[in-house]
Amino acid sequence: MNFLTAGESHGPELSGILTDVPAGMKLDIDEINDALAQRQGGYGRGNRQKIEHDEVIITGGVRHQKTLGSPIALTIKNRDHAHWAAIMSPTEPENAQNTLRQVTRPRPGHADLVGGMKYGHRDLRNVLERSSARETAMRVAIGNICKQLLEQLDISLVGYVEAIGGVQADLNKPTDVKTISTAIVKNDLRIVDNDQVEKIHELIDTTKRNGDTLGGVIRVVANNVPAGLGSYVSWDTKLDAKLAAAVMGVNAMKGVEIGDGFKDAQNPGSKVMDEINWQQSAGFSRDSDHLGGFEGGMTNGMPVIVKAAMKPIPTLYKALQSADINTKEVKKANVERSDTTAIVPAAIVIESVVAIELAKVITDTFDGSNMARLKQQLANYRDELKAF
Ligand code: EPS
To answer: Which positions does UniProt annotate for FMN binding (predicted)?
Structure first.
């Protein structure tokens, strides 16, 4: 299984191709669109989301709501393109009108400057259009297909917001996907602890008034992931490493943690290892999950727990210092319309990329050509694990 996305933030549309989804899998398009709507929401979003109404169009790989085993091709229209049609036209040659709104004062923290240096772009719009987190809409659509695949294999997962700015919104660290999913839809912050909503709204409002931005921490939990996915035998077969790469591949992420990661580094081994238990009904299990469901780069049957640290959005209305790439004059960075925080949508994006990696490892480990066969293989494998 693999995927590719293309498209600029204000270009005509986003495109995606996902390969090697098993044939015969039931695909619910409404569920993809629901995930896309969730990604558009959340307190702290900017005005762009009032323009967009993300809906996926499937143009290949699916027939009568069932996958064919062939590449799944998807598109999502950028409604805002209507306002950028000339500037972002893929076909018109450059002229005085369609080269307006050039970006020459790179925003610190964005790809603007380094992207321009690397690709030789003198209009940094050529960089920011692709480095924009708009692209994550397609990763959510692809991730939702993978999530549906996992759900049909009885694996569930959810991504949510653990902290915004410095405010912790999850003191209990739940490991049950259902519990988390029920709690986070009760507010527009995707947090478990509803009591923190008001405080965080105020924090976001004040930050916005100050022309500033906020980051936060995202936590993803996956349940019923069978033991033994990934492998200890080589560095590049470890599934936790692949998850970390996928998470770091999401815009604005600056840290990844598996389980209690950084806290584990401060504790003695006796407080970190998850002691082994065995029961007739379930086979081997653990009494705790400090290691986030991973040992030796392999899942160990406990809930998979992945965390991500997101830096604040680099576009500040109270612009930071920059230097013009043409005049070399040191002055304020370009100000582009932006969000105050995108931590809520980012939680769905991180959930999506974790879903993609889990679906990938499963379809690579077992024969992923046909859904019924895959289901049967996984059921047999689970029985085998229980009897070990
Ligand atoms: C983004 C800037 C904003 C965000 C955008 C990401 O877009 P615009 O420049 O059009 O206001 O809204 O995110 C999305 C469009 C989206 O769908 O998530 C950026 O610079 O990364």
So the answer is: 130-132, 251-252, 296, 311-315, 337
Kind of pairing, strands 167-168 and 156-164?
antiparallel
DSSP character at residue 27: -
DSSP 294-308: EETTEE-SSPEEEEE
Query: 129 alpha carbon to ligand 1 midpoint, in Å?
Result: 9
The CATH number covering residue 34 comes to: 3.60.150.10
- Cα separation, 248 vs 253, in Å, equals 5
For ligand 1, mutation pick of 338, 340, 344, 350 (most atoms within 8 Å of CB): 338
CA distance 142 to 17: 8
User: pLDDT digits over 119-163, tens only?
Assistant: 999 999 999 999 999 999 999 999 999 999 999 999 999 999 999
Which residue, by CA, sits nearest to atom 17 of ligand 1? 134
ipTM over 0.95? The verdict is: no
Domain count, the chain: 1
pLDDT tens column, 205-214: 999 999 999 9
For the Cβ of 132 lying below 6 angstroms from any atom of ligand 1, the answer is yes
